[in-house]
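User: Please predict the structure of the protein below. I'd like the answer in structure-token form so I can feed it into my own downstream comparison script.

Assistant: Understood. Taking the following sequence of 144 residues as input:
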Amino acid sequence: MQNKPIDKMRKWILASGLVLMISLSSIAQQKSEERSTSEQRAARMTEKMAERLSLTADQKKQILAINLEHVKKRDQDRMDQQKESDARKAEMKKQDESIKAILTDEQRTKWEEIKLNRKDRVRRSGGQIENRDQFRNRRGGGNL
């Protein structure tokens, strides 16, 4: 009779371990896909299509070219977005430094608190404005 709780615990631990291993292997697989080249990703996409659609060799060749062009464009778009993001961050930092140079120590401290509160609000709301009316009022706008 006393072994039943222990057996249940062992099964639970075994099941939890199995779920953990599957999750970790899935994460590792995603990371390895992220590091693959454009050509490898396009080839993988084409192979999956070939299996599912029974493509001819000529179709595979044409679709590979299309997939490769698409993957390279996506990669370039991603790099462009990263460059734009880096440029925006640098501009914001420059603006912040210019503002801080004008403020007194007390004002600087208060400014840092304001920025931290703003970041915290955005983080809590998932980047979304929860109440648009409050947002408009805070920004000085009213109902349109």
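That's the full token string. Helices lie at 3-34, 38-53, 57-102, 105-124, 132-138.
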